[in-house]
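At this stage, I wrote out one protein, both as residues and as discrete backbone shape codes, and that material follows here.
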Amino acid sequence: MKSSRSLYIMCHIPVFCWISATVLQRMLSEAESQAQIPKTLTQMFTHFLRFQTKLKSQKYDGKCEVDLQQARKSLESLGKLAFQQLEKGNLIFYEEDLRECDIDVREASVYSGVCTQIFREEFGLNLGKVFSFVHLSVQEFLAALFKFLSFLQQTSGRFSSFRTSVSDLLKSEVDKALQSENGHLDLYLRFLLGLSLESSQTILRDLMTQTGRSSDSKQEIVEYIKMKIRENLSPEKSINLFHCLNELNDHSLVQEVQSYVKRGDESSLSGVSLSPAQWSALVFVLLNSEEKLDEFNLRSYDRSDECLLRLLPVIKASRKAE
């Protein structure tokens, strides 16, 4: 896990530890020994979904082989629920919400279930049964998968009137996430971008009826995200866009700024004029550094209001700043 800093720093979240342990245990077993260890958040959750789908067939259906048609139907229903409720900002939903997504309430315990702990039901005070995903990140992943698969279905028909490309979809979702005031679509966007890659679609090839070509769209969306970073966004939004680039396996802006950080001269960045994109990259590098941010030395940087504002996320993450 330490080989991927973006994954390692999430290990303080108990659910992510459980998901990672589930995936790595299966992948490091003899049968999966040749598989490549996940490097991004999307890869980790994609493997997790595939393993849980297999487990559902064995545990609830008593079958060794996955019923692909049933699995696709279940994922579509859960994904639809996840997407609709995420757009509304809901983490908890009710029986009528399940019915709207063609989920049989009587079989909710089985869905609880794609396959072990993805979905759960509880009894709310005077509200009957209430439902939720085991963690918001699981809901966001399923919502992103539903959005991407729905788009592929709409554009794959021979007589389809849709002519939107994958890159157009991704650009639209980038804009939508940036317009969100509370950032509730940030992780959803990272998953959606990661799912657009052929490597992610290969992992889920049995559960997908169509796949999208990503060779051209990847570079186009990478350049679009870089353009957005240069627009002088808030530090939080810029940092999430760097996480998005990481899901797309693009590290060019980060590598550009690392040349400053690795000089070793404590005052190397004092007086250096950085562009908004470089500032964002610097903050991303510092937050993802292997060194603990116990004490952050502001003397290495310009003593200006702009500098303090840019470095605010790093200062907040540090125990002490001077």
